[in-house]
Amino acid sequence: MNIFISGSLAYDRIMDFPGHFADHILPNKIHMLNVCFNINGLVEKFGGTAGNIAYTLALLGEKPSIVATAGEDFDRYESWLERNGLPRKWIKRIPGVFTAGAYITTDLDDNQITAFNPGAMAFEADLPALDDGALPALVHIGPGNKNDMQGLAERCRRARVPFVFDPGQSLNIWTGEEIARAVRGALCFISNEYELSHFLKMTGWRVEELRRQVSMVVTTRGPEGSVLHLEGEDTFVPAVTPEQVVDPTGAGDAYRAGFLKGLALGRDALVCCQMGSVAASFAVERHGTQEHFFRLQDFRRRYEAHFGPLDGLLSEAATL
């Protein structure tokens, strides 16, 4: 099966401030803010929703195609994708600009100040046709360039290719009418609780209207698990307990990878969500969004410890 993951590719530049932001920001001077935080150092990680999802899918035996743009500084990231066996055919290099970058400073209270440079993400990617009929396809449309998200959704509808719509942090770039049109016909709308509430407010829809427009709705709740809304019923899916919680960043993207792997294997929606929960548990055990690692037998063992037998994962994955 051809799996296409659209969204962002970014460098995450993470900095730690050995103090408290509140000690350096004067509330009565917030209108003329001018502060400097001396950090302990900077760590660069590979990130972006498309890259994160594709990485965990690679651990699950898939070779999804990333549909995104990257800048002239992408060589290090491209080498990482190559080492993980991920195709780069649909990654468009934009000369003269940088790859998207998030600059994240965290204080001792875990408060964060983030600056995001969209860089190459401001340019449209080259979108796959999807209608060549070569192989069955599955598309995940994640937060990235709005024109790419709209265009890929329309191509999926025309070619009758199932797609998952994941607005994430892109909600602020849409109008309600635009995003309502983009999600129609999706196999799944996936988001966290805040994003779902924001989406419903933007569109003026009730959740019942969203359920009429898409086949299923999945809402993640972090350590509280997730909820599958399907055929008029809500099913709670518990979070899987990790060995240790080190960094929750990237757990949502890992969940999506596990969910997509289940869809690729033809599993029912509940099993797909359970697989998402298992994948997320590995991600929170490491700092960064592409730092975790597991083997298929590790994944299956953890799944079966929480949810029961998962027949066929190893044998089927080897043939896809």
UniProtKB/TrEMBL annotation:
UniProtKB keywords: Kinase, Transferase
Domain of life according to the entry: Bacteria
GO terms of molecular function: kinase activity
CDD domains, per database record: ribokinase_group_A
Record keyword Hydrolase present: no
Keyword presence, Transferase: yes
Protein name: Adenosine kinase
Organism: Desulfacinum infernum DSM 9756
Source taxonomy: Bacteria, Pseudomonadati, Thermodesulfobacteriota, Syntrophobacteria, Syntrophobacterales
